[in-house]
Write a structure and sequence with these properties.
Two copies of one chain form a homodimer.
Chain A (H helix, E strand, L loop, with lengths): L2 E2 L2 E9 L7 E10 L2 E7 H7 E2 L2 E4 L3 E5 L1 E6 L15 H16 L2 H17 L2 E8 L2 H11 L2 E8 L10 H15 L5 E7 L7 H14 L2 E6 L3 H11 L3 H6 L7 E6 L5 H9 L3 E4 L1 H6 L7 H6 L3 E4 L12 H16 L7 H7 L2 H6 L17 E5 L15 H9 L5 E6 L2 E5 L2 E2 L4 H22 L3 H7 L9 E8 L3 H10 L3 E16 L7 E10 L5 E11 L12 E2 L3 E5 L4 H8 L3 E16 L2 E12 L3 E10 L2 H17 L7 E2 L3 H7 L2
Parallel strand pairs in A: 1-5, 2-6, 2-7, 8-9, 9-10, 10-11, 12-13, 13-14, 14-15
Antiparallel strand pairs in A: 2-3, 3-4, 7-16, 16-17, 17-18, 18-19, 20-24, 20-28, 20-29, 21-22, 21-26, 22-23, 23-25, 26-27, 27-28
Helix pairs in contact in A: 3-4, 3-16, 5-6, 12-13, 13-15
Chain lengths: ~650, ~650
């Protein structure tokens, strides 16, 4: 008896991507409603099924739609915003300041719609997302007709959509309630990473995932730094650290896992965690190369993800599949690992399992959702093709085919693209919106980047403390003698300190920018040991000094900020044209003299070896005040028995620069 | 005064890729004849130049055409013929047997034409080739209108177009004479690699390159194996080895250079050698990752190549450029190396220098050949774009754009593609020819791969020596006693030997295939030292034995061949379903007994530890002869005082298999 179907695909090379890798060179698939009704040889199926819509797939591969196992779709709008940069410079210097300023529900909706269009074009039918305003991701994805795990990000610091993590957790629960049960959208929760979460976040997010039986999406061991920090702080790598808080009791999607060890892999297998491998992003940000072939050997479900376009810079799963296959070979020294069929499985059936949608999608099997694509392999760059090996069709998809060979996409039984025409997203309307937003962001960045000062503000570091000092600097031959004099004097000593200071001065093309100083202050205790280290950044602004008699210098404006990042970060972020390095030993007294507070520094310049200096400094706020303090400072010098005529009106960095 | 030009490109984002990286966001280029007449801002150029053909490039990048610095274009016809295999299995098991059988002038012409079409589509305007019948490569390339260095391959062993290297050298000279001076084709010579060349080849090829002032194209240090072998044999790595023969006095294009050290890099810089980096091929064949960022630091001209499609599997330079940029970051741990602009330079200006065409092509500069392309960056996957950083346009090309965004291609002032329509290659005519050839090759391979025997023949190893033996095998408790008896007997001892044998038996699904034995024979000298090692492959054919009285076995047919490759190679090539390993000590006497030659083997089975056996064997060629020899063998056993009733009718591998 002939059965009825809604749609009948005929004349296709069908790759089922089921457990047995069934394949029909002249195959057919029947679809009814949202699901697959039958898969098999065309001769047989055309006898058994009739449908009002018959799709002739001559010269094409019919296969499950691809699964993008880890992405941040709204970042589509930030494509190419800062490339060839180190992770921290890219994230703190570009992405985060822009996100703070621009990410809104509208931004997220627009970015998601365009990302969906791009994903559809590259043959993706399901993806796992993680971003802010995830409700809008879900909304736009449902409109585009794609299947997605939409995971609301939770961070321990304020984010574009939440001032606190409690707010983000509450938003997650609301989103989960709103979307739970939707045919396309699986709402979920995303504590961003171990190092950006508090213990409370990890616990609460896990509880939420369990309460609603939804996935939990998290970045794990993306960089070696993350692992080192975790080892330093908690004496264990990231996976066991998370295990303590029961995180893996949820259905976890673990993005990256570049730096997990063998034992961590075994743990992930045991907990049924899905690993999302992001080859392009991991190379582009230099995070490293995940040990994918070993993970597969151990039985992990490894999916493939594009990550966000900002670190990719597109959503082309064909590129990711190819790179996953190539990279495993190149990094292992074994060209037989991650063969083409495995790579395609990672992007379909295994990818679906990785994001915990294996029961619904990822393979062409009776009863599964009709999430499928057609790929034209009759093009120039796909020709000729060989069939002496049953695996060659997978190899053709991985090594020769391109995303632009995808002609048709169906999700949940509905067409999203027919003959390369997008049916659910109006990109002609949306692209100009995206470009005008990009122009706004360009303007914002140009403004922020116009001066060293504004770049300092942009990374959120500088507290805007403008300050002036009066300053006398005198070369002294025998500092000990002066110190004895100081200690025996009538001066009220408020405190004394001992530092060893390592200063790097950045110089910029425009001298008006002044210098930016990165200082490492070692606090030396009474026993001469380093008891603490402080990192500070000081912007020594354009020269506005005034010279007083007695060679007192009224110094530049200074903006001081803690320096939480590395010297390397600041170099790459500020891109100075020149650098000067100064290392000195500083003994400092804070004293009160005629009711004015002064710092008295005894500096021994070790690198370069310029000898000993005495500095007397005091903060000031008006010219009148400065003039008065300049006089008192000079008196202070006299009290210490030092002649001010030998004084220098320059900063150390200037003394060095003016030397022959 | 307004000047005349043939063609005027306006409204383009022009990337000159000259030494100063000049860039015009609203730029124009004037072309006259085969060369570039002017480059600059549109406003200015449209005032200065008029042309009958004005090309509006709105939304597009106008840039130099890409340079594919290393490829084997005719291999286009072998796309996807054997993937996910190790280099030797792929080369010896698939590529070489097929090349021996199918590569002809017609094959080369067809493959080149289709490759040119694919190259044009991906924006390539120049390439450096290396293959057989290179005259035909030149012919087809000139027809397609592309610029190329066509390098005739020279190998020390017979190739599809030359029975000897002298023949290949002569063909090279003829080709060079024929093509020297052609506007598009630069003929050249290609000693394939150090390890496939004799000293004579290296010298003669270099002399030829110098005589005609043409480039010399060679593979250098593609695999670590190549370097290890060179160190073992010549006590130096590949670059100094080649330096001895003055090879670098020619204009050398060195493909791969994956495993060269710092000193070798310095040498290549000194000699002005161009290095062709092939990232996909090096990953796919697991050759390794070339130290590109270090090479660039040292000032080497590093170009980017696709290599042949058989190890890629396409000719998509956009993929290669992206991978070159990504891989350098991922492998160095520094995401700032090989930034996008550098990657584009490697594929254009530096690529042209790498193949010694830097004076002609690779940048948009007045007087250079008009080799240029248009790339549409107004597509979905390229949007939006940011311009706050002048380098972002290069980043867009590298990380977001695709080869399918190339819309127009011009070489030597002539259009090869307009609005994605190929103008010089009729692919609709050629593709069916390529596919029918692929079908023929499929049939050839299916036939070759139908049995272990034909696979053995396909790799050229087996000499077709079919042989049978009569064989008695007896377990002996005290072999020394029997040996004494043998030495004291009347037997004429022809010689005696001592071996230690390591045998791996491959078993196949179909028992009719018999076993394939890989044997490592250590020849032990009188002092007990290993004096030599021999590797042999024996196909122990389907059982055809007949049992005689006295438990004499008439053995299987045997094909014996030297085994020049590794055990690993044979495993991956023959893909046995099972393996058995046997290690034994063998003392062998060749004796003459009643005018019949016999081998008498005293075998001590060490792994598995089965004890001592005595074997008596003799070759035979007819049943009658076998029957006679079986009788004599039994008498020989008696002479040695061994009872034949304890004899075994099985091979060792069968004895092991039949054990519990």
């Amino acid at each position: 008896m002939v059965q009825k179907a809604d749609k009948l695909f005929i004349n296709a090379h069908v790759l089922c991507m089921d457990d047995d890798f069934n394949r029909y060179e002249k195959g057919a698939v029947a679809v009814t409603g949202d699901h697959i009704q039958a898969v098999g040889n065309m001769d047989q199926l055309t006898k058994e099924y009739q449908a009002p819509e018959v799709i002739d797939c001559k010269g094409k591969i019919l296969m499950p739609g691809l699964v993008d196992a880890h992405t941040h779709v709204p970042m589509n709008l930030l494509r190419g915003l800062g490339d060839d940069l180190r992770l921290d410079v890219w994230l703190l210097g570009f992405i985060m300041p822009v996100e703070r300023e621009f990410v809104s529900p509208e931004f997220v909706h627009l970015g998601t719609s365009l990302a969906c269009a791009e994903l559809i074009r590259s043959g993706v039918t399901s993806f796992a997302d993680m971003y802010y305003f995830e409700d809008q991701v879900a909304e736009a994805t449902a409109e585009a007709g794609l299947r997605a795990i939409c995971c609301q990000t939770i961070l321990k610091f304020p984010s574009p959509d939440a001032d606190s993590y409690e707010e983000a957790l509450a938003a997650s629960e609301t989103m989960i309630k709103n979307w739970k049960g939707h045919p396309l959208i699986t709402p979920a929760v995303a504590p961003h990473a171990a190092y950006t979460s508090t213990v409370d976040i990890l616990g609460s997010a896990t509880a939420l995932a369990q309460k609603y039986d939804v996935p939990l999406h998290i970045h794990i061991a993306e960089t070696s730094q993350e692992v080192e920090d975790c080892l330093d702080e908690f004496d264990m790598p990231v996976v066991p650290y998370l295990e303590q808080f029961d995180v893996f009791s949820a259905k976890v999607i673990a993005a990256h896992c570049v730096h997990i060890d063998e034992r961590e892999m075994h743990k992930l297998v045991r907990y049924g965690v899905g690993v999302a491998h992001n080859p392009t992003s991991n190379l582009k940000l230099s995070s490293g190369i995940a040990k994918v072939s070993r993970m597969l050997e151990l039985g992990l479900n490894v999916g493939i993800g594009t990550d966000g376009v900002s670190s990719n810079n597109d959503l082309d799963m064909f590129e990711e599949i190819r790179l996953a296959a190539l990279l495993a070979k190149g990094s292992s020294g074994d060209p037989t690992v991650v063969p083409a069929r495995t790579a395609i499985a990672m992007a379909t059936s295994m990818g679906a399992k990785c994001i915990h949608l294996g029961d619904l999608t990822g393979s062409l099997e009776v009863g599964k959702k009709a999430d499928l694509i057609l790929v034209n392999i009759d093009t120039l760059h796909n020709s000729p093709h060989y069939r002496n090996d049953p695996n060659s069709v997978y190899a053709q998809l991985v090594y020769a085919a391109k995303s632009t060979d995808v002609t048709d996409v169906m999700v949940d039984g509905k067409w999203l693209m027919r003959e390369q025409k997008l049916l659910t997203v109006d990109i002609d309307k949306l692209l100009p919106q995206a470009q005008s937003l990009a122009l706004e962001i360009d303007r914002f960045l140009v403004e922020r980047f116009q001066s060293v000062y504004s770049k300092l503000i942009a990374i959120g570091g500088a507290e805007e403390q403008e300050s002036y000092e009066v300053q006398i600097k005198v070369k002294v031959d025998d500092p000990e003698k002066v110190i004895t004099k100081l200690e025996e004097s009538e001066l009220e000593i408020l405190y004394s300190r001992h530092y060893h200071e390592f200063d790097t001065y950045f110089k910029f093309e425009d001298p008006k920018e002044g210098w930016l100083r990165y200082r490492e202050d070692e606090f030396i205790d009474a026993k001469g040991e380093v008891e603490n280290v402080r990192y500070r950044l000081t912007l020594i602004g354009p020269q506005r000094e005034k010279h007083f008699p007695q060679d007192v210098l009224l110094s530049r404006s200074r903006f001081i900020a803690p320096a939480p990042h590395s010297l390397r970060f600041y170099k790459e972020y500020f891109k100075p044209t020149d650098e000067t390095y100064i290392e000195k030993d500083r003994r400092r007294w804070k004293v009160s003299f005629r009711n004015i507070e002064f710092f008295i520094n005894f500096d021994r310049l070790d690198e370069p070896g310029l000898g000993n200096f005495l500095e007397v400094k005091s903060r000031t706020w008006s010219l009148e005040d400065a003039e008065k303090k300049a006089q008192v400072a000079d008196d202070l010098l006299k009290l210490l028995g030092v002649q001010s005529k030998a004084s220098e009106t320059l900063d150390y960095v200037q003394i060095i620069e003016t030397q022959p």
